[in-house]
Every structure is written in C-alpha cells, then in structure tokens.
Amino acid sequence: MKKLYLKDIAQNLGLSKTTVSFVLNGKGDENKININTQNKVLEYANKHNYKPNQLARGLSRGKTETIGLIIPNISDTFYAKIAGSIEKRAKEFGYTVVFSSSNENAADEEKLIQSMLNRQVDGLIIASTQQNQKDIELLIKMNFPFILIDRHYPEIETNYVLVDNFGSVKKATEHLLNLGRRKIGFISLKSDLEALKQRLLGYQEALVENNIKTSYIKELGTDTYKEEMKKAVSELIKFPNTVDAIVFSTHYLTALGVRELKNNNIKIPSEVAIVSFDELSAFDLVDPPITSLIQPVNKIGDAAVEILLKDIENKKCSVDKKVILETGFMIRKSCGTV
Amino acid sequence: MKKLYLKDIAQNLGLSKTTVSFVLNGKGDENKININTQNKVLEYANKHNYKPNQLARGLSRGKTETIGLIIPNISDTFYAKIAGSIEKRAKEFGYTVVFSSSNENAADEEKLIQSMLNRQVDGLIIASTQQNQKDIELLIKMNFPFILIDRHYPEIETNYVLVDNFGSVKKATEHLLNLGRRKIGFISLKSDLEALKQRLLGYQEALVENNIKTSYIKELGTDTYKEEMKKAVSELIKFPNTVDAIVFSTHYLTALGVRELKNNNIKIPSEVAIVSFDELSAFDLVDPPITSLIQPVNKIGDAAVEILLKDIENKKCSVDKKVILETGFMIRKSCGTV
DNA sequence: TTGAAAGCGATACCAT
DNA sequence: ATGGTATCGCTTTCAA
Fold first, then answer.
1. B83 to A100: CB separation less than 8 angstroms, yes or no
2. Domains by residue range for chain A, with CATH
3. Where are the beta strands (DSSP E) in chain A?
4. Is A265 exposed, middle or buried (0-12, 13-18, 19+ CB in 10 A)?
5. The pTM of the whole model exceeds 0.90
6. What would the pLDDT profile of A5-35 be if each residue is shown by its tens digit?
7. Are residues A118 and B54, on separate chains, in Cβ contact within 8 Å?
8. Which residue is closest to C12 in terms of CA–C1' distance?
9. How are the residues of chain A apportioned to helix, strand and coil, as percentages rounded to the nearest 5?
10. Least CB-CB distance to A59: which of B59, B85, B255?
C-alpha cells in the first residue's frame, strides 16, 4: 500500500483534483458537488486512509494550523505544565504545537522566533527572555499574531497572560507578618525580568505598609545562584541579620534554600519560616511541607491559546488583550502558625 | 520592509533562482558559481535577512529537518526532562522538535503518528502507550525512521532506548533486604507496560534469590490509582501484612504513597522503608529524603536522537539499535541504614 | 558558470 | 456540478 495522493484519488475516481479537494475540505455543498460524488470521494479517501501532505497544504493555503511555543526551558516543571496545558487546549481547536526552548538566551530566542516564522506557524506564544524588544516590536509591525505569557515587556503594548506577581508576594509576605514574623528575608535572582521585579516590589510593599523598616534582600546571579545560595542563606541567618522568615521568588530557589537551611540545622518554621513562589510536586511532602504560591498553569495556557486563536482567525495581531491571573496560596507548615 | 523571497533576490541581482538557491544552500562551489556572484548573493541575503520558507523547502526537498516526539504527557517531569534533552541534542544537529502528548491513549497516539507523518517530520521518537503494535509495524514497513524510548514492544524488533527496569528494581529491593527488611511491599500500576512488568519482576527476583517466600504486591488502576492508594497502603500496613518496606514503581506513586503513610502516622524509615523508582525534584527535601532510582534522562535523549538521526541520514528505518541504560541509585534516609 | 523549467502536493480562481 | 490550471516558494535536473 503505497502513499496515496490527492491526484490518485482524482484519477481513480475519474474526477478532477478540484472536486476531490473541495469534498475533502468539507466544501462540497458550498460548491454544489453532487452528493453521490461526495460520498464516493469520502468513502474512497476513507477506505484508503488518505491524509493530505500538510506541507503542501500549508504552503498553498498560507496556514498551517500550528502554533509555536517559545519558553525558557521545557525541563522546568512550571513551563512543562504550561506547555501541557497549551498543547491540550490547542489540540481541542485542531492545532498542533511546535515548541522550542530559548535557555534564557536572547540570541537563541531571536533565532527561534525567526525559525518559527519560517516554518509558517500561524501564531506564537512566547515566555520571553524579555531582552528581545525589537523582535517583539517587529512581530507587531508584521501584524503577526502572538501573545506573551509569564513574562512581558512593560514598555511595549502587547497581548499577554501573566500572574499577579506583585499582589501574590505581597499577600504571602503579609501572611508571614500576620504570623508575627518581623525580620523577613527575600531571596531572588538578579534579573531584569519584570516578573521578578514585581515579586520584589510586592515583598517591599508589604513591609512598608506594616511599618517594617528593614528588609533583607538577596539577589543571586542567574548563572551562579547555585553557588551563591550558600552564602546568601548563611548571611541571612547570621547575627545581626538573623531573619525569622524567608520568601523565595522561584521554586528552584526554594528547593536550594531549604537544602541550605537544613545543612545549617535551621529549624523550619520555628526559627525561619518559609514561603515559596511557585512549587515543586513534592513540596507538600517536604519537612516541613512548604507554603507556596500556586501558579494557575492551566488558566495561563487556556487563556493564551484562546486569545491567540482569535487573533489568528482574524489574521491580525491585537495588543489589547491583557490577562492577569491570581495565584493560589497553599498554606502549609513551613510558615508556622500563630 | 516586506517579506523577501528567493525570487526577489534573483531579480534584484539579475540572477536566476537556481544560482541563488545553490549559493544559499552552500552548493556554490560544487556548482561552480563564480565566487563574486556567490559573495554578492550571500551579502544581499544577509543584508536583507532572507530566510527561506521552510514549508516550500520541505515540500521541495522531501525533508524538513524536524523530528516528531510523541510522549504520554509533557507535564510529567520525567517526560519533560526527556523532551528537554532531546530538544537540546536535536538542536545541535540543526533539527527542530515537534511534540505531542498521547495521554496514554492508544487512539490518540495513532492519530499523532499519522499527523506527524503528514507534517513530514523526518523521523519519530516515541514513548509509546505500547498498545499500537500495528502502527509501529507500519512504520517499519514504510521504512520510516523512528526509535522507541522508555517503552518498547517486546514482540517487535525495533530500535529503542530503555533503562534497565528489571535490574534496577532488583538492585533496590536487594538494598532493602541487605538492610534487614524482610516484608517488602511493591506498589505499582495494573498495566501492560513492559517497563512496569519488568520492575515487578525485578522485585520478585530479588525476593526469590533471597529465599523470601511472601511478596506484598499492589497494582493500582491506571485511572484510579489516586483513590486506590489509600486502600493499598492501609492494607500493606495492617496486620498480618504489616510490611517493613515499600518499593514504588513510579515517582508519582511514591509521592502519593508517602502522603498516605504520613496520614497514617507511619514512621519512615523506622517502621516502613521507602524506595522510589524515578524521583521528583524535591525528593531530597522530603521527610525523610527518599531513596530513588534515578533515570538517566539526558543519556536517553542523546542516544535516541543520535540513533534516529543516523537512520534519517541513511533514509531508512533500522531495527537493530538497542540501548539499555543503567539507572542511578541515590541512597537517602527513607530506606534506613544498617 | 548560469538559467529555464519541471517538479513537490495541495488549494482555489475562473471557466465551462 | 465539475475541470483546467495558476499558484504557494523552493530545489534540482538538464540544457546552454
């Protein structure tokens, strides 16, 4: 059973490619193709399991029913979950997802955007490095459908789906304050990512509103945070800083930090309470279970796909769809109780 | 700056598409294109940032430099890591990865394989549901390059990259035996997956070799394991079964099981020791840290890509490349000490 | 050295 | 109602 082409169906049925194409694309009635002819074609195609070459189809139609997803790293559980939810939602609409990781590298991201465009994806979902302003602006200029997720460019008007970074960290910090903690540390990354900036601001705002004058902020290098965590933690737990709580700005920082606290025999939460922005699957099993802000991954994916597909449908790139989602707050033992 | 096509370059430079195409594909010398002409073309293309339409290119060449990856679920950390390593390695060879999740559904998987073929991927990497024998056989018959990972079909001769499921669980069980445990339970899924069968066999073999007559096996339903875990654990810890150790066959079963053990106030490892096949990122932080068999995700991805690309290069589907990798064994407190 | 033209496999406009 | 044919953008054979 060799590969069957549209041409073959037409020949074998004594019809033209046009007719067959119409029928197979559900445009039979629209083009007044005889119902018998239609059935004949459908039956034949079905029986021989005909499947159109999507390359040819895409080239001809200028549409591929594919969306490109660019994320920093598919191995990160957060992005993996996002990818999963995007794929699921996209599939419901008959779209395929092509993904690529930028590894937080702006140059890579630029190449990926280009590559996706050359592969004629119909639209892009990007969790950007936030260092490619010109490429994003170019997409807008090209009127190419896309939407940013997780990270956005504050200076450019674009569609995006984010979480309320500021509000959720503020909420988490307030929670610690309400539990009587007064010397709260914040461990994050030295980064220009707006999301991380907002998390820091949320932390600071909570302190200010509660008249806490002293903050304990550690911002680690994005490439060197593994090594720097040791020092950061030890500085935060040593007199005169000795914090009584730490807010971590990402799940992997939390994991590293908790490891380090344990190495230092710090008791959680009695000596230092912990709150994590985002979580890992086993955070509820950790000793003690870690209070975490939970990202609404499914909602992020769903919203992104829905907005993007609407743009694709309208063959344009809108920039006025902005979604900011609330995070969940899973209170566990790591932040102690009153 | 509107979209630039090959035709435009040719026209603007007063050359033919052929010449330009040759040069841009690095076949200038081979086709004896004047070096000046070559430079002119290269320069022009570069300056105007020309990028070929990959759809047209693929259609014309019958090659897309794309590999399809079909996995059960991209949201699962294990597959996410695999995907990451495959993507990384593929990228090094100039290949893009298209991925799709089958959700452990044979019908979905069949559709995905079809869909990938229609999209003209050059080859497939599949972590199969192991319920699509006929589709796999079809690929072989089509001489289409592909390789199985993580799961394989024992009855079909194919390329694959697996881990030593039997040996690693045997090793882990022996470890528990060496620590004096004698009533060791095994919690897995009711499944036809060869990998899971092998893990069970490894467990049983360790018992047999050590003259342990009684095994405690719980196989939960693949769709209902969340609910069934409660019962399984309670049965294993109740007289007269009261096990002193449990081996879990997947990371998520471990997480669930440990939660359940904690709910029942079982002390780990003093009352029940734990070993997990595969791990979650925070297993080292759990109370107690969980001894785990570590899957060599990077090696799996690397091997799969390398073997596949060789087949793609040779335009054929080989079936004699079989790689079985050893798992790591990270001994932590959950299995106790001598 | 270079160019013309025939594909690749579909879609869709314009006839009939 | 159906068919002929140009077209999508590129590769590649063959001729010049």
1. no
2. 6-52 (1.10.260), 66-163+297-325 (3.40.50.2300), 165-295+329-335 (3.40.50.2300)
3. 66-71, 96-101, 123-126, 146-149, 160-163, 184-190, 216-221, 245-248, 273-277, 291-294, 322-325, 328-330
4. exposed
5. yes
6. 999 999 999 999 999 999 999 998 888 899 9
7. yes
8. A18
9. 45, 15, 40
10. B59
